[in-house]
Amino acid sequence: MKTCLIVDDSSVIRKVARRILEGLEFQIQEAEDGEQALDMCRRQLPEAILLDWNMPKMDGYEFLRSLRRLPGGDSPKVVFCTTENDVAHIARALHAGANEYIMKPFDKEIVEAKFQEVGLI
Amino acid sequence: MIAQDFDYLRRYLKERSGLVLSADKQYLAESRLLPVARKYHLADLGLLTAQLRAAPNGPLGGDVIAAMMTNESFFFRDKLPFDYFKVRLLPALVAARSREKRVRIWCAAASTGQEPYSLAMILHELGPALAGWRVELLATDIANDVLEKARSGIYSQFEVQRGLPIQQLVRHFNQTGDVWQIASDIRGMVTFKVFNLLNDFAALGVFDIVFCRNVLIYFDQPTKSGVLNRLGRVVAPDGYLVLGAAETVVGLTENFSPMPDHRGVYVPKAARVMAPPLAPEQPRPLPIPRVIAGGER
Description:
The structure holds 2 protein chains of 2 kinds.
Chain A: E1 2-7, H1 11-23, E2 26-31, H2 34-43, E3 48-51, H3 60-69, E4 77-82, H4 87-96, E5 100-103, H5 108-117
Parallel strand pairs in A: 1-2, 1-3, 3-4, 4-5
Chain B: H1 3-17, H2 26-39, H3 45-54, H4 59-68, H5 80-96, E1 102-107, H6 114-125, E2 133-141, H7 144-152, E3 154-156, H8 157-160, H9 166-172, E4 173-176, E5 179-182, H10 184-187, E6 190-194, E7 207-212, H11 221-234, E8 235-243, E9 256-258, E10 265-268, E11 289-292
Parallel strand pairs in B: 1-2, 1-7, 2-6, 2-11, 7-8
Antiparallel strand pairs in B: 3-5, 4-5, 8-10, 9-10
Helix pairs in contact in B: 1-3, 2-4
């Protein structure tokens, strides 16, 4: 079973994403912000990360840049999932090493399609 | 809706569009046709059916057919047919057409345009080797309203997230508020046209590749056979027919046979020598297409 780390400061979004991803047979871990997520990744890297942009302490963009500098940090597939839906943010995310990008609001079909796109399903 | 009106409607849809509406789908007809009745200021579906009987060739008929069609579509739907198109079918045709430098592609059930635009994006990205080629991409559908949306190239945030990789969204679309419009150079590669698959295809000319996906499933067996037999006359002898994942030619026509190891791809039955496949990681560079609109061979 593949592991997915859901990083979002909204417990509602984490709950919705967890339900969708467990339905796709992922083992789920959760983090409330980028700092907590980075600590978890230092201990063990997941196969997938579903990542919000705006979070307290460390935002998604800074987390991604830090993650990619960790040993083995280029291996997790990172899918942004955010309300930052403009081209500039998308381009920044891709430049920082995001593999895919989900614009909120989202549904199960979109998450499934994006995870398929990056070879996680 | 009374039974007689529903029976008339089923016959009308079958004769005019090929759509087979089973007897247990009255709820579907009612839910989809009530908005049409409102549009024509008709109080109920009895009056709608009466007007349809009085003027079966009028605009109401077109709206009734359009409302009953299922137009779900998304970019790069099922992925595999587009991979085949990119690494196998198109390179084989480019090799075979190196003298005439012309390729004709038909999306026979284009709906809201995601399929032809997916092909257009592939053609656009394949790059410089198609310089001087004429690549025609004809996209047809029976319903004008879905083609209007297709022509606009405007899609919601939900629509652009189903099947479309984010890099291609950024590369080929312009964002306006909450909607995304496909770039004019991609839009300009596709010619949209209203066309009924029950009609004769001869006037459309001969095609090298026909995508006829996820439409035969709505037809009965004789209608499927009719469409496939007519396709047999417009697909080039060394061309390809691409059907949906739930569709087949088996038992329906003698004109096509499945292409080995390429699910959903069919070739005309006449003996042919297949071009060798290209390795996916080493696609043959293709020239930039000089795309022209419509036209006939």
